[in-house]
Fold Excinuclease cho.
Amino acid sequence: MPARSSAGRAVAAELLQDLRELAKQLPPAPGVYTFHGESPLPLYIGKSVNIRGRVLDHIRTPDEARLLSLTRRFSFVRTAGDIGAQLLEAQQVKLQQPLFNKRLRRNKWLCTITLQAGELCITDVHDAGDTASFGLYPSRFAAVEALREIADTHLLCYSRLGIEKLPAGRTCFRHALKRCAGVCCGAEPEDDHRQRLLAALIDRHVHAWPYPGAVGIVEKSDELQQIHVVRNWHYLGTADTLAKARKLDQPSASFDRDCYRILVRPLITGAAEIREL
């Protein structure tokens, strides 16, 4: 029994050394890397501003033992910077569904909370358009639960939020428990309730797409210039010239939550170089 255990450790050590040697051949530059096993399907897809260093970190991490035991080679795609690496990683994880990626999975339907004519609605996020939207949720149930949490924290009325139906002229039960400030019985003005609701929602604000069509986000390094094409918070691909970037434009592209989270800050703050296409 001890002999078999020692042999197993020796094989594992030999495999790790082989993987280290392969990792040392990767570039110390931004991009997306993939772990491959015997199967054509990828095991894991990741991104880094230093591909070589990040893959070596995987090899040094004990929790990665199962992934490493199945890995036989690495591949990579260079990018000009971190934005391109993040966009490509999110796209490829959705397309290829690697065994060991637990994040960046595709949601079949995303919804958001909107205010339309003063009324709260739960809407398909792609249909929200320019309406003020708050939060991104994988289901209507998740959106309702988020509203409950907001109401419980800020003493808002379930009936005014559309969570519960209340007969005309009735005060909600939560007001008796001092968990509602009383908009349902006139103890709080409607406008005060609305302002407190808006203040509670503001941290969840989802920005509408700020351009009339697709844009190219330009990233440059010493060796590469790339133009990442995005429309309505959906990544369409990367090109090396504006002419090629324009060919990637697809007007029907849908909203993508991961793309939104990657790009909302650089686009809204002006930190990224943008070319309208």
Observations:
- The first strand starts at residue 31 and ends at 36.
- The first helix runs from residue 2 to 23.
- Residues 164 and 235 are 38 Å apart (CA to CA).
